[in-house]
C-alpha cells in the first residue's frame, strides 16, 4: 500500500521515574518503552506480543495520551497528536478507542449500560437528537450481539463475556478508526474467548477498523492479525506479516517464544528452546543486545553493540524486520537463515 | 489398587442465596506414578476437588460427601492429626500463586526445612542440607546462597520452583498441582513444565495436574478428566481425548482454541463457539449439565442426566448421544 498509514509511531519512549532516597528525588528510571517505531494502515490489525512487563500496555496508554510521553512522535492520519493540547485533541480522541482486559473493573458499576454507551456519543456530539441517540444505542447493541433491551441493565447483571461486549460497544460508540485491544480476551474462559475473538474479527471486517491487538497469547494473535511486532524489554525486536513471523521467525527471542507455547496436540515431536533465567529488570536493561543474557546464540558482539531493526531477506514475503547481529553472518553460520516455523510448531 | 480413588465426591457450599453445588458427584482414580490432568473452565470445580482431597475445605460453609481413598484409606474419615501427617508428606500440593502460599517472613531454606523436620524429624542441620539439595534439584542456581533468601527476593518462576521443592521434599506419592504455570510467562512456563516432567521421571510421584490450558494437558498428561459445572463429563487417555473427543463439550472446547501455526497450514479461519454461558451451580440441574449449550440436545437431555458410560476402552463420557465404539452411527 502506498497511501499514508493511519497511525505512525516514531521512536516512542516512556520512562517512569522511580522516587526514593531521603529527599524523594528521582533515583532511577524504568525504561518501560525505550524507542519504538511502527505504523498501522487503515483496516489493518497489528499485534504487539511479548511477555509481561515488556512494555505493551505502556505503548497503548501512551498512544491514548493517558500520560505524557518521554520522547517520540505519534501521528494519526497525518496529524501529530503527541504534542497537541488536550482541547484540540478531543475530536481526534474519538478516532482511537480502547478495550481493556478486565471487563469487571473497566465498566462503571453505578452506570446503566445505556449511560455507559451514551457518554461517548454525547461527549463527541454524535447524536442529532434523542431519537438518534436511541437508534445509535440499538445499533451498538446489535453490533456486539446483545439484546437491545439490555441497555437498561447494570454491569453486574452481565457475565464476563457479556461485559466485554459492552466494553467493545463503548469503544465503537465514538465511531473510531482504530481500536486498541489491551489483552481484551485474556481474562475470558476458553469457550467465551472464541465468541469475543470472532466478534472482533467480524467487526473489523464490517467496519474497516484498524486494530492494535496487544496480547501475550500467540495462538490468538496468529488467528487475528495481519502483522506482528514482538517486544522485549521496552524494544521491538522483530516485525513481520503473520505468515512470515510464524513460518520464518528471524529473531532468537521470537523463535523461543514460538517453541515455548504448549500445543494442543499430544505426542508431537518439537524442537524445544528452553530459555535460561528470567527477563532482566527494565530499570537496568543489559548493555548491547537486551536479549543477550538469555539468547542461546549470543556472541561477543551482542554484549557490547545494540542491534538495530533492519529489513531481513525472507522467502515467505516482504516487510520482515529484525534486530539481531546474526543476520550479519554468512547464511551458513546464521541459525535463523532458514524458515523454521513449521518445525518449531510441529505443523504441516 | 489405585493410589487415589475419588468416589462420588460431592462438595457443596451453603451460601446466602442457596446451595452452591461446586462438585456434584465426581469419581476418578489416579494410579501410582501417573499424570492425570483435570481440565475445565474456571468455576467448574477443579480447585474444590483438589482441596477436598486434602480436606482443606472449610466446613461449614462446605460439606463434603462421598469417599476419597488414598492407599485404600478413606481420608474423609481420617482424624485431623492423621490428615496433618499426610499433607505435605504423602500428598503435597502446589498452587497457582506461590506468593500466597509461601511464608513471607521465613527464608526459603527454613520453609523447606520445616516440612522435613515436621514430617521426618530431621535435625536442623540435616534439614538445611536437604533444602540446598532440593533447590539444586529444582534448578535454582547458587542454591547455597538462595536458601537464605526470602520469597520476595525471588522472581515468579523461582518462587514456583521453591514451591515445587517444598512439595517434593518429603518424597510424596502424590503431587497435586493446581494451575502451577498459569500465572507465569510462556518462556518461564516452559521451564517449569520441563522441570515437572524431568522430576516425575526422577522422583516417580503421581501427579494430578489441574489446568484450563489444553496445550499444557496435551504436553504432560497421560490421562484426562474433563469437568463441566461440577461434574465429570468425560475421561480418556490423552491421545483418545484429543483425537476422538466424545462429549460435545470437549469437542466444543477443542474447536474453540486456535492452534499455533494455523496461518501456515491454512486451517480454520473461524473459531468454533460454544454459545451461551455455564449454568448457575445454585440451581439443581435434573438433566445433562451441558444441555443448555449443546447443539445436539433433545428433550431427553434436559430431563435425564446421562450416566458416565464407557464408549471405548478407558474412555468414558456422560452423553446420551456420544457414539460407542463399534456402534453404528444413527
Ligand atoms: N506507572 C508506572 N510507574 C512505574 N513503572 C511502571 C508504570 N507502568 C508500568 N511500569 C513498568 O513498566 C514496565 C512495562 O509495563 P507494561 O507496559 O505494563 O508491560 P506489559 O503490558 O507488556 O506487561 C514494567 O516493568 C512495569 O512495571
Ligand atoms: N469457600 C467457598 N465458599 C463458597 N463457594 C465456594 C468456595 N470455594 C469455591 N466455591 C465455589 O465453588 C465453585 C467451583 O470453584 P473452583 O473449584 O475454585 O473452580 P475452578 O474450576 O476454577 O478451580 C465456584 O462456583 C466457586 O465460587
Ligand atoms: S543480537 Fe546476539 S544476543 Fe541479540 S538476539 Fe541476536 S544473537 Fe542473540
Ligand atoms: Mg499489559
Ligand atoms: Mg481453580
UniProtKB/TrEMBL annotation, chain A:
<dbReference type="InterPro" id="IPR003439">
    <property type="entry name" value="ABC_transporter-like_ATP-bd"/>
</dbReference>
<comment type="similarity">
    <text>Belongs to the ABC transporter superfamily.</text>
</comment>
<keyword id="KW-0547">Nucleotide-binding</keyword>
<keyword id="KW-0067">ATP-binding</keyword>
<keyword id="KW-0813">Transport</keyword>
<protein>
    <submittedName>
        <fullName>ABC transporter ATP-binding protein</fullName>
    </submittedName>
</protein>
<dbReference type="InterPro" id="IPR013563">
    <property type="entry name" value="Oligopep_ABC_C"/>
</dbReference>
<dbReference type="InterPro" id="IPR003593">
    <property type="entry name" value="AAA+_ATPase"/>
</dbReference>
<dbReference type="InterPro" id="IPR050319">
    <property type="entry name" value="ABC_transp_ATP-bind"/>
</dbReference>
<dbReference type="GO" id="GO:0005524">
    <property type="term" value="F:ATP binding"/>
</dbReference>
<dbReference type="InterPro" id="IPR017871">
    <property type="entry name" value="ABC_transporter-like_CS"/>
</dbReference>
<dbReference type="Pfam" id="PF08352">
    <property type="entry name" value="oligo_HPY"/>
</dbReference>
<dbReference type="Pfam" id="PF00005">
    <property type="entry name" value="ABC_tran"/>
</dbReference>
<feature type="domain" description="ABC transporter">
    <location>
        <begin position="7"/>
        <end position="258"/>
    </location>
</feature>
From TrEMBL, chain B:
<keyword id="KW-1003">Cell membrane</keyword>
<keyword id="KW-0547">Nucleotide-binding</keyword>
<feature type="domain" description="ABC transporter">
    <location>
        <begin position="4"/>
        <end position="254"/>
    </location>
</feature>
<dbReference type="Pfam" id="PF00005">
    <property type="entry name" value="ABC_tran"/>
</dbReference>
<keyword id="KW-0813">Transport</keyword>
<dbReference type="InterPro" id="IPR003593">
    <property type="entry name" value="AAA+_ATPase"/>
</dbReference>
<dbReference type="InterPro" id="IPR050388">
    <property type="entry name" value="ABC_Ni/Peptide_Import"/>
</dbReference>
<keyword id="KW-0067">ATP-binding</keyword>
<keyword id="KW-0472">Membrane</keyword>
<dbReference type="InterPro" id="IPR003439">
    <property type="entry name" value="ABC_transporter-like_ATP-bd"/>
</dbReference>
<dbReference type="InterPro" id="IPR013563">
    <property type="entry name" value="Oligopep_ABC_C"/>
</dbReference>
<dbReference type="InterPro" id="IPR017871">
    <property type="entry name" value="ABC_transporter-like_CS"/>
</dbReference>
<dbReference type="GO" id="GO:0005524">
    <property type="term" value="F:ATP binding"/>
</dbReference>
<protein>
    <submittedName>
        <fullName>ABC transporter ATP-binding protein</fullName>
    </submittedName>
</protein>
<comment type="similarity">
    <text>Belongs to the ABC transporter superfamily.</text>
</comment>
<dbReference type="Pfam" id="PF08352">
    <property type="entry name" value="oligo_HPY"/>
</dbReference>
